[in-house]
Amino acid sequence: MSPLSTVVVVTWRGRDHITACLDALSAQKSPHRTIIVDNASDDGTAALISGHEVVRLPANRGYAGGLAAVLAMVDTRYVAWLNDDAVPDPSWLAELENALRTDPAAAAATSSILLTDGSTQSVGVALTADGHGKDVVLAGREVFGFCGGAALLRTDALRAAGGVPASFFCYYEDTDTAWRLRLAGHRVISVDPARVRHRHGASTRLGSRLFHRWNERNRLLMLLRCAPGVVAARELGRFAAITALLPFRRRGVPEAANFRVGLRVQVLAEVVLRLPATLWQRVRIGGRSTVSRQAVWRAWSGR
Hints:
Layout: E1 5-11, H1 18-26, E2 32-38, H2 45-48, E3 54-56, H3 62-70, E4 78-83, E5 86-88, H4 92-101, E6 106-115, E7 120-122, E8 125-127, E9 133-135, E10 150-154, H5 155-160, H6 173-183, E11 187-198, H7 209-226, H8 229-245, H9 261-288, H10 293-300
Helix pairs in contact: 6-7, 7-8, 7-9, 8-9
């Protein structure tokens, strides 16, 4: 029987955890194709994955770049995104496939992602009132977006919505994609029985300067691409205003890296440099949409 799904695993220096991921994929109840995208690992990962279908990139393009690099190779009805530090239950893929098969209006199904201690990391993504993507931890049938660490998407819907935003490199590629799927009239569902265990932060250092740079930059780019214009302008202006005021604040400034002026100036510079291309992308996304940006925002922001 031909597989319904292609599972794409993007790795970079995954030697310490990718074997557990691939072993779990080999134990899946549902037949599937697996493509491993190796982002030019230099730690011995290549030797561990040599027996699999591997696309080795000449440089590290990040999670988003890795997913985008192989989308054209996918010839199955569904495509799964799976972190290399995630270990899915044997029925994980079958549960996601069944959920999409029985809900034609849904273009993406998100998993129950559990941390190694058994606590819930995510059963989907909510859209906050200021346009952040936020993990949902209480199971529900429909959510705004999916967590890209373990999700299944309809391949044709993903392509029609513009694919994966490769230039994001890492973070918010999933929430941006969920935005575009919703603008195209699709739903995103949470599938509680589709469970994976996740070594959160094994591939990227949470709280690091790079982590905050990608998060802040990509949130603003996502809003500029997908959100109502007034929301995108408001959040970009708010980010710039806080950045300008930080040097004058003596107290109450958080220690997190995303409140350091240098990082925020770098984020603003990157957003401004990308603004012409981003606004052109916004036009193209709007041209494909069947639901207004305002309708999506009203339905999901702050929920």
